[in-house]
Write a structure and sequence with these properties.
Length: 209
C-alpha cells in the first residue's frame, strides 16, 4: 500500500477537490490528467462526492481517493465508490482499522506529538498535518523532523502557491494537499481549461523546490 501512496505523492501536490455536481467529475478528471497532476482527493463533504469518485475512478490515468473520511461507514462508502486511498482530518482507530480491513491506505490527520506517536504505534508513517496553518505550519514540521524520523507529512490547510516551497523544502514533506488549482467555483462552472492550467503551474512550481 505504501507504493500506492508514493504514486499519489509523486507530483508533490495532492489536489483536494470539492465536487458539488457529479456531472463535472469526468471533465475534472480529464483536466487534472492533462495538467500533469493525475491524482485527486475528493472530499466527502457533498452529496455528490460518491458519484463523483465513481466517475473519476473510471479514468485509467487518474488516482482517485476520498478525503474527510471520518467513520468506518464512510470508509466503505468511499471504497465501494472506487476510492483507492483515504484521507482523514484526524486519527480514528476504528476508521483506520476499517481501512486496513478493506486493504486501502489511509492518511490520518495529526497535529500534536501525541497524535504522531499514536499513528506510528498503529503502523502508519504517512500522515496528514491539518490544519497546517493553524498549528505552526512549516516550523512545526521542521521540529517534528528531528523527533519523528519515521514519519512523513502531507500538510493541508492554508497551503498555497505562495508558501508551497516552505513545506516542500522540508525533508519530511513529500507532498502538500491544496485546492488552489481546483477552486470550487471553477469546478462548479466546468472551466476545465483553467483547472488544467492551474494544475500544470502547480506541478511546475513544486518541481523546482
Amino acid at each position: 500500500m505504501s507504493d500506492l501512496l508514493d504514486e499519489v505523492l509523486a507530483r508533490g501536490i495532492v489536489p483536494v477537490v470539492v465536487v458539488r455536481d457529479a456531472a463535472r467529475a469526468a471533465g475534472l478528471a480529464d483536466a487534472l490528467v492533462a495538467g500533469n497532476l493525475p491524482v485527486a482527493e475528493v472530499t466527502l463533504r457533498t452529496a455528490a462526492a460518491p458519484e463523483a469518485i465513481a466517475t473519476m475512478a473510471k479514468n485509467p490515468d487518474l488516482l482517485v481517493g476520498a478525503g474527510t473520511v471520518l467513520t468506518p461507514d464512510q470508509v466503505d462508502l468511499a471504497v465501494d465508490a472506487g476510492a483507492r486511498f483515504l484521507v482523514s482530518p484526524g486519527l480514528s482507530p476504528a476508521t483506520v482499522a476499517r481501512a486496513n480491513e478493506r486493504g486501502v491506505p489511509i492518511v490520518p490527520g495529526t497535529v500534536t506529538p501525541s497524535d504522531v506517536m499514536a499513528a506510528l504505534a498503529s503502523g502508519l508513517t504517512t500522515l496528514k498535518f491539518f490544519p497546517a496553518s493553524n498549528y505552526g505550519g512549516a516550523g512545526t514540521l521542521k521540529a517534528f523532523a528531528s523527533v519523528f524520523s519515521a514519519a512523513r507529512f502531507v500538510p493541508t490547510g492554508g497551503v498555497s502557491a505562495g508558501n508551497l516551497g516552505d513545506y516542500l523544502s522540508l525533508p519530511n514533506v513529500p507532498a502538500v494537499g491544496g485546492s488552489w488549482m481546483v477552486p470550487a467555483d471553477v469546478v462548479d462552472a466546468g472551466d476545465f481549461a483553467t483547472i488544467e492550467q492551474l494544475s500544470a503551474e502547480a506541478v511546475a512550481a513544486a518541481s523546482v523546490v
